[in-house]
Write a structure and sequence with these properties.
Structural class: alpha+beta
Order of helices and strands: HHHHHHHEHHEEHEH
CATH architecture of the largest domain: 2-Layer Sandwich
Shape: globular
Helix content: 55-70%
Number of strands: 4
Strand order of the largest sheet: 2-3-1-4
Number of domains: 2
Number of helices: 11
Strand content: 5-15%
Distance between the termini: 32 Å
Largest sheet: 4 strands, antiparallel
């Protein structure tokens, strides 16, 4: 069975290119001239949204990040904008500063003009959209995109949601003995194994390093355990020469569950299994 790992289409059915053009046509940042106005806009969003930074980053760049990631990026953008304005001696549009931060090498003390403003174009916004949601090594969704999908499912409360936290066993040894290129192959193999055994509608994402997360919808605890067993068997088969495997923890959502709560519970369960597997 195959699995969809891309973001669901928007309700309007627009393409990414059309969405990028709309960001330009309906730019709420166009009128913003200083940091105080940015802060006022952030405060206004905070009155109606629990994730004001994530909403601003989504409107500014089309990126889907969790609130923690978006807050960190927002702070970096504001600081980068100030530095660009100082170096260039003129005001800098906040989106120009954001895209410059994301696409150019950082300025250095020796050459502070190494980081320069760039032209805003739909193609660049489309690339930002793609890079925000796809991991460069595996092609899987990244943590921020996964959390957005999980939060969406939990808000709907229409389907049973299960999160599986996966941590590879023996991955550091592969990197140390065979090199990082072989380690990247192992990460891609995990993505391949997940796509081959999970159901359509389930989601797998790379959280970072050798950690992955699965979101299984409308699966019982027995079905979730069976999915993990199938995934482990396929992954171990594909990486047999390297003797790698993984530990996994499962958390099932209830009516009070949040995305962070599910990830935390699944993470704890994974470490408990890792200790048991190590003891064996």
């Amino acid at each position: 069975m195959s699995m969809t790992t891309t973001a669901p289409p928007s309700s309007s059915g627009r393409t990414e290119s059309e969405a990028a053009w709309q960001l330009i046509r309906e730019d709420i940042f166009e009128r913003l001239c200083d940091d105080a106005e940015l802060e006022r806009l952030l405060a206004e969003r905070a009155l109606t949204s629990e994730e004001p930074h994530a909403e601003l980053v989504r409107l500014m760049l089309g990126m889907s990040l969790c609130e923690v990631e978006a807050r960190a990026l927002y702070a970096r953008v504001v600081a980068h904008r100030r530095e660009m304005a100082r170096v260039l001696g003129r005001p800098v549009h906040v989106r120009v500063a954001a895209l410059d931060l994301l696409t150019s090498r950082p300025a250095t003390r020796r050459n502070p003009r190494e980081s320069r403003p760039i032209m805003v174009a739909p193609a660049l916004l489309e690339r930002a959209l793609e890079e925000a949601s796809a991991d460069a090594v595996t092609g899987l969704p990244r943590a921020g995109h996964f959390m957005n999908l999980l939060q969406h499912e939990l808000r709907q409360r229409r389907r049973r949601v299960t999160v599986v936290y996966v941590d590879l066993d023996g991955f550091k040894l592969v990197n140390d003995v065979h090199g990082h290129a072989r380690g990247d192959e192992v990460l891609r193999t995990m993505a391949e194994a997940a796509r081959s055994v999970l159901r359509r509608g389930d989601v797998v994402a790379r959280l970072g390093g050798d950690e992955f997360a699965l979101m299984l919808v409308d699966a019982s605890i027995e079905e979730s355990r069976a999915a993990v067993t199938r995934l482990r068997a396929r992954f171990e088969e594909l990486t047999a020469p390297l003797a790698t495997s993984f530990s996994a923890g499962i958390a099932v959502a209830d009516d009070a569950s949040t995305a962070d709560d599910l990830i935390e519970r699944a993470d704890r369960a994974m470490y408990e299994e890792k200790r048991r597997r190590a003891a064996r």
